[in-house]
Amino acid sequence: MGKREEVRRRTFAEILDVAGRMAEAEGWQAVTIRRIAAEIGYSAPVIYQHFANKEAVLRKLLERANADLLARMRSAVADEPAARGPHLAAAAYLEFARSQPGPYQLVSGGAGTGVDAATRRAAAAEVLAFTRRVVHAWAADSAAGPVDLDDACDLLWGTLHGLAGIGSIEDVGFDRALHLAEQAVSALLGYWSARPAPPADPDAPHPHTHSPHVRGEK
Amino acid sequence: MGKREEVRRRTFAEILDVAGRMAEAEGWQAVTIRRIAAEIGYSAPVIYQHFANKEAVLRKLLERANADLLARMRSAVADEPAARGPHLAAAAYLEFARSQPGPYQLVSGGAGTGVDAATRRAAAAEVLAFTRRVVHAWAADSAAGPVDLDDACDLLWGTLHGLAGIGSIEDVGFDRALHLAEQAVSALLGYWSARPAPPADPDAPHPHTHSPHVRGEK
DNA sequence: GGGAAAAGCTAACGGCGTTAGATTTTCTAA
DNA sequence: TTAGAAAATCTAACGCCGTTAGCTTTTCCC
What we know:
2 copies of one chain form a homodimer.
Chain A: H1 3-26, H2 33-39, H3 54-77, H4 85-99, H5 101-108, H6 117-141, H7 149-167, H8 174-194
Helix pairs in contact in A: 1-3, 3-4, 3-5, 3-6, 4-5, 4-7, 4-8, 6-7, 7-8
The structure holds a DNA duplex.
């Protein structure tokens, strides 16, 4: 490892670091190429040796945020019964939105972060895909019939997005959002598991079988 | 009416008009004081005779958008049975997000519109309040027990927010979002009306009584 | 040790929101 | 009708922004 590249790497990391801290402290609107450069003790053009433009900096941060969110959802669900998957994933999602407001704003495209919509969409695809996996695992476990699961997946995802938005409103708060999410997930899952089977079999009104775990990845 | 004030009023309206059109055509990021001024044939400082600053222009547009959204939800629900209120209000919300993407972005705070969060929050309060009224009317009608209706209201609102976000993603689309919203509302309403009354009374499994209308306003 | 390559800086461009100050237009009142 | 007040409007400028060009210095490699 040349000393040169070592410094490069450190500077690269520092740029992202400082940008993240500035966003946390003063909001994404206050994050500026010139200010980042000043903070790390360089002149502004140096940033362009590491990133093509400002959006590239934000994009990198968004990718990290997304990976972080995904990891949290994954680990929340790992080694837990598939039946609880949706609840746990939802809680992890909201917990991320609460504890990492800056990164979450990047992920959800809030508050003029300046990241292009297509980029956000692509990043969100991973989270959506994971949500799909969780719901499918739940369905396989809970003996839900041949419903349109894609509906359930997208709906869950949309609900999370909406509730996270609610959570960041002072008057509502994340505790309440978490409470609401729990009910929403119950309602949605109940709706889908109640649909395919007409209430003619009073044997299993509440399928609560313990069962296989959700795998982390494909 | 002095000719002076007449011109003032026209200019005021023109500023908002041009700003709205520019946003529709090129996105809110492209809306600029200087460009607005050029478009209406004035120099930039003239704008400041009508608005304190750029945010004030956006704020006015946001207020209008909010009033428009509210009016659409109201008229969607008017003269319809309260039982259908939540479904109709949800559809109207999504329809607004589809047909007026620019204004809706303002309302929902998307894509760096530059409007302060507190302002958006205050504006959204009206829509939330109306949502509450619709849900309460539904509850009064559908013999739902003494559930915590606030949960239902906020959840509905959050779901709409989330689904509208989904709708504006190309790969999903508003038709699908509408479809999802219908299911979500059914699921949530079903959840809340099924909760308080334990299934011991097989007389009314699906309370579908036609009944009083939702009033437009208090 | 010398020459290529990388890293860094200053200066500048065009654009932004916004303000100050001068100038023109319009209204009002004697 | 006309002088003076008030309103409208303009040009210039300030300090910021993202970004690029071009030059100087440092570093590495042969």
